[in-house]
Amino acid sequence: MRYQREYLNQGRLTKDLMHKKVSGICGGIARHYQLPRLGVRIAAIVSLFMFPVVTAVAYITAAILLPERR
User: Fold this and answer.
1) Which domain of life does the protein's organism represent (predicted)?
2) What is the CA radius of gyration of the chain?
3) In-domain check, residue 33
4) What is the pLDDT of residue 46?
5) How far apart are CA 30 and CA 59, in angstroms?
6) N or C: which end of the chain has fewer CB within 10 A?
7) How many domains does the chain have?
């Protein structure tokens, strides 16, 4: 039996500038993985309180490296 994985979104992970609050990272992650934007933002805030340095570095790095959606 052959296992085939279907991807719902074949595109690249990009910032979502249309639904952004700060830089569009959470909106882009939510759009790419088809998750609710509010849930991704709440998870980002919770992780910011639990792991502040790691989350801040990851968010700033993503804001710099991720391309904008055209």
Assistant:
1) Bacteria
2) 14
3) yes
4) 96
5) 14
6) N
7) 1
